[in-house]
């Protein structure tokens, strides 16, 4: 019965993923512009160094190989972040904090439920994935992955490149970056992530006069603007001949981004 519900939800996924809008949670808007605190993301970096596999057009994660001690270190990293107050950080440190936390929580969810063929298999019986599940408590407030992406990152920073750096553990998703985000490297990684995704077939695939785009550009179309604005955005990062968005379709691969 559960598999039947999962199949129904999978068929309805485009409608589900069109729903989340940028809706600011005001409690997380404050920041301390004068703060010089640097958050330690070294545990997350060590996990990426050990288990992330970078291929020409895809990064994959060795979920099966993660040791018990490294699972513990990941949990410790997440706990350490949960025990700090991101509102006391400056904006650049905040951005790195939230992006790394989102990605670390996603990897932890897969590891906690492994083996699993897709992140969409997680969550409650009538859920398409775990994005509305409360996964962490910070400053006494329970947060979901959707809270982090759609109520903190998107409304505060208002940068469409955010969609290229929060990873949903799926083959269709923009790559999990091999570097942990920091205040110093965030802009470079945003640019690198956008370029890599837009020049991959999972981001933009051109076949003659037809263009197949990632469903991200459909689900979050408001972040990229009109079709003309989206076209300019894509061509800013594309190598070779500019793309023309006359005949467009959308696709997304929810299979787990696992290295075999």
Automatic annotation (TrEMBL):
The keyword Zinc does not apply. The keyword Nucleotide-binding does not apply. Residues 87-198 form the DUF547 domain. It comes from the Bacteria. InterPro entries: DUF547. Keywords: Signal. Pfam families: DUF547. Residues 1-18 form the signal peptide. This is DUF547 domain-containing protein. It comes from Photobacterium atrarenae. The lineage of its organism: Bacteria, Pseudomonadati, Pseudomonadota, Gammaproteobacteria, Vibrionales.
